[in-house]
Amino acid sequence: MSDTKKVMITVRKAPHGAIYVHEAIEVMFIVASYGMDLSVVFIDDAVFALKGGQDTRALGIKGFMASIGALVDFEVEKVYVDRQSMQDRNLTEVDLVFIGEDEDTEEQVKPKVLDSEAIRALMLEQDSIISL
Amino acid sequence: MLHTVNKSPFSHSGLETCLRFAGEGDVILLLEDGVLAAVSDTSRSALIEEALKTIPVYAIDADVQARGLEKLIDGVKLASYADFVALLEGHVSQAWL
Q: What secondary structure does DSSP assign to A62-126, as a single string?
């Protein structure tokens, strides 16, 4: 397994105002489909992409909530959120959406909230970081 | 790890977030509008001054020259595009876009 590339995708843009988050999710599915060791991190305004209750119908756009809800099912399993970015935006873990179902326990899983030190440690382990 | 910042610290939070994640052994490279963070005695100078205590900070020379920036924070090093490539080769990099 040591030759499996470790790839991280970092997302920092807010959802819906621009296409960045939507594109980032597409990239996540593509990278995961190549069997790479993928982790994804939501930082700054991108944490709003993981908030529950998003409904883009009145904007006349499809949105990406279905994709977010199926991340784990499509092998995007290491999903992390920056704790400070959430605190800065008055979000707590309760506000986060489910991103799929644990294969073994069949329980619904949420993104994992991490401190910046822990995220930095993960960054240092990567072969490559894709910043979006 | 190499951190690149290409947005102005006066209108974007990229540099501040970068500094929250950067640590010893890392390198920060300012490019495009990011070089505005390297100007001395601004309302944002303290960010780079503080970073320089533990982390080397580079600014792309072409971007500094293009903007006519003369008063740079002491300790900020100028880098060519060749230097940028060398830094990329030696580090995993995170772009704070």
A: --SHHHHTTTGGGT--EEEEEHHHHHHTT--GGGBPP-EE-TTT--EE-PEEE-HHHHHHHHHT-
pLDDT of residue A51: 97
* ∠ CA A51-A54-A57, rounded to 5°: 165
- List of domains in chain A: 6-131 (3.40.1260.10)
- The whole-number pLDDT of residue B51 equals 98
Reported ipTM: the value is 0.90
Q: What confidence category does residue A103 fall into, taking pLDDT thresholds of 50, 70 and 90?
A: confident
Residue-range domains of chain B with CATH: 2-96 (3.40.1260.10)
- For residue B20, the chain A residues in CB contact (below 8 A) are 84, 116
B window 34-53, beta carbon within 8 A of A: none
Cβ-defined contact of B97 to A116 (cutoff 8 Å): no
pLDDT one-digit tens code per residue, A50-63:
999 999 999 999 89
Checking if the pLDDT of A2 tops 70, the result is no
Pick the closest to residue B1 from B13, B19, B11 (CA basis): B19
